[in-house]
Automatic annotation (TrEMBL):
InterPro entries: LysM, LysM_dom_sf. The lineage of its organism: Bacteria, Bacillati, Actinomycetota, Actinomycetes, Micrococcales. It comes from Microbacterium laevaniformans. The keyword Lyase does not apply. Residues 67-111, 136-180 form the LysM domain. PANTHER family: LYSM DOMAIN-CONTAINING GPI-ANCHORED PROTEIN 2 (PTHR33734), MEMBRANE-BOUND LYTIC MUREIN TRANSGLYCOSYLASE D (PTHR33734:SF22). One of its GO terms (molecular function) is lysozyme activity. This is Muramidase-2. Residues 1-36 form the signal peptide. It holds the Pfam family LysM. Keywords: Glycosidase, Hydrolase, Signal. It is an enzyme of class 3 (hydrolase). Transmembrane segments: none annotated. SMART domains: LysM.
Length: 340
């Protein structure tokens, strides 16, 4: 089985390896990435929201046309429901959406109630929660994590999540403003309720064009390497959790690409980990150097075929959130069936 080889070209001349050509919600599934549940598959900074005004009354008893909201890049259903002040379940019901439905930029959603709220600034602003002693704010930068922000401000992760109404699987975006709880913050007995839908089998049309192209690349590379369907499904789920199946040019620390592989830990150069074919091959086969294996891939893990779905993904990714992969199992198999 061929492995990625980072030796100089002269050293590689003696070896043969052929790699085909075509890497954290959120998909945007209304669930998280790297959190499998609320991730928004569109990490790009949000533009100014556009909300249509209700149709004016022409006669005293004429019904008001429903207000609408045009989805922007980076929006999630949960964010929209919070912004306009309605329940997430009501927003879904008004638009006939399921928990796994993906929304897309330009899509027009009906807002139940018939009254359009005023447009807000593009970045969601977390307001100070006096019940948790929040007295300061922090603007999220690219590469930030909730844990790192909490640690830098000397507060617990739970306190930071509670102050902002976030769950442990929440996704944050550059430009987002978080409330920082003060030293007097006291955690409530139960955290703020954040709906966390469980991913279910969804048709391939729930992915946008970029995600479909990347998913097909993962499937094709897996087929070429002789990886069984279970391994390809694990790769698809991993890419969704890590990057929303998008070839990201940013991530935690130096993580890049669909699988958020880190050049500093031996996954390859920045260009290599952002190459969809090379990064997928590395996920399956690992990366080898002059002295042998540098990073192990899924096929290097003994008994991966009989492991729990999420545990198998975690054996490669070594994530701080190992519980996020498993919920995508059924959905990953649905994508494989539709695209493979």
């Amino acid at each position: 089985m061929s492995r990625l080889d980072h030796r100089p070209s002269a050293a590689r001349a003696a070896t043969t390896g052929v790699i085909g050509t075509i890497g954290t919600l959120a998909l945007t599934l209304s669930v998280s990435p790297a959190s499998a549940a609320t991730a928004d598959p569109r990490p790009a900074a949000r533009d100014q929201t556009r909300i249509g005004a209700p149709t004016p009354l022409t006669i005293a008893r004429q019904a008001v046309a429903p207000a609408t909201y045009t989805v922007e890049s980076g929006d999630t259903l949960w964010d929209i429901s919070r912004r306009v002040g309605i329940e997430l379940s009501a927003l879904r019901a008004a638009n006939g959406l399921e928990a796994t439905t993906v929304i897309h930029p330009g899509q027009v959603l009906v807002l139940p109630g018939g009254i359009a709220p005023a447009a807000e600034s593009s970045a969601p602003v977390a307001r100070a929660d006096t019940s948790t002693g929040a007295t300061a704010t922090y603007g999220v930068n690219a590469g930030d994590t909730l844990w790192a922000i909490a640690d830098a401000h000397g507060v617990s992760l739970d306190a930071l999540l509670q102050a902002n109404g976030l769950g442990r699987d929440a996704i944050i975006y550059p430009g987002q403003v978080l409330a920082i709880p003060g030293p007097a913050a006291v955690l409530r007995a139960t955290p703020a309720a954040v709906e966390t839908p469980v991913p279910m089998a969804a048709p391939a049309t729930d992915l946008d064009a970029e995600q479909i192209e990347n998913a097909r690349t993962i499937i094709r590379v897996g087929r070429e390497l002789g990886v069984p369907d279970r391994g390809i499904a694990i790769a698809l789920a991993t890419a969704m959790v890590e990057s929303w199946i998008r070839n990201l040019d940013w991530g935690d620390r130096d993580s890049l690409g669909m699988f958020q592989q880190r050049p500093s830990t031996g996954w390859g150069s920045p260009d290599q980990v952002r190459d969809p074919v090379l990064s997928t091959t590395a996920f399956f086969e690992g990366v080898s150097g002059p002295d042998g294996l540098i990073t192990r891939g899924l096929l290097d893990v003994p008994g991966w075929e009989s492991m729990d779905f999420g545990a198998a993904a975690q054996s490669v990714q070594v994530s701080a959130y190992p519980e996020r992969y498993g919920p995508w199992e059924q959905t990953a198999y649905a994508w494989l069936a539709a695209l493979g």
